[in-house]
Amino acid sequence: MTVERIVVSDGAAGPYGVTAGADGALWFTLVHAGEVGRLAADGTVARYGLGAPGCGPSVITAGPDGALWFTRMRDHRIGRITVDGQARSYGLPTADCGPFGIAAGPDGALWFTELNADRIGRITVDGEVTEYPLPVTGAFPSMITAGPDGALWFTLNQANAIGRITVGGEIALHPLPTAAAAPVGIARGGDGALWFVEIGAGQVGRITVDGEVTEYPLPDRTARPHAVAAGPDGRLWFTEWAAGAIASLTPGGVRTGYPLPVGDAEPHGIAVTADGVVHAALEIGEIARLTP
Predict the structure, then answer these.
(1) Per-residue pLDDT tens for 98-134?
(2) Active site residues per annotation
(3) Cα–Cα distance between 96 and 114 in angstroms, integer?
(4) In which domain, by residue range, is 172 found?
(5) pTM of the predicted model, to two decimals?
(6) 248-251 long-range contacts, CB within 8 A, separation 24+
(7) Which of 48, 192, 199, 207 is spaced 20 to 30 A from 149 at the CA atom?
(8) Any bridge partners for residue 198, and if so which?
């Protein structure tokens, strides 16, 4: 893999979440600047202010309507931006809920987690919001993804579990074998299972749709894996926040690491495009691009 670093902001703005858009560009959040950015294939960078510098745009995903949808963690709203940079946002029913993870569901809506409220939310492309309380408190629901079974799967960072919610709102929780694993990122794998990373335990986990969990310890248990994405070849790609590295894991559990050529890079969000190119958001103001 060839590692390229692309400057998209100063170090104070903080790229955090990243995703591929319907327009062929890479879209990312600038969590500390209150902006969303676009990185074109030719390296051109555009930044779009959201009218609220302290809103904390965090995780971003491509929506079913061709726009990009993202969570505004600090002012507790869900944002939407078109590929030509027109942005708006929607308020949520629960005050100070802290929306964080977001993903497109199989029902044509966006599903998101509420860190502070122990709830999973659903928002239609027209802005209609429904919230579903979790059967546990202090769980810190974090990232969410659509599963192969037509449900949404999410991590419960402080409840040490993986959750599942149907589009009808039925919830099930699956405890993890390792205590204080603190799962964060989760993604659908090419093998029909869900893959997640345990920032507290230094492990990558796999859960089947039946709830069977397998964990793969990393060589550096203090690497603090943060986000995960599936590649077209079946490998899982994840950021190692504390180790300053990007790594991959085969479905069989074989890890390959790619240290970033800069200290204190703070890699957070990660996305893999259909051509196998890996992009990671570095909070120092850069996007790392790993090309096969």
Answers:
(1) 999 999 999 999 999 999 999 999 999 999 999 999 9
(2) 268
(3) 9
(4) 2-291
(5) 0.97
(6) 249/195, 249/204, 249/216, 251/189, 251/190, 251/191, 251/206
(7) 199
(8) 183, 203
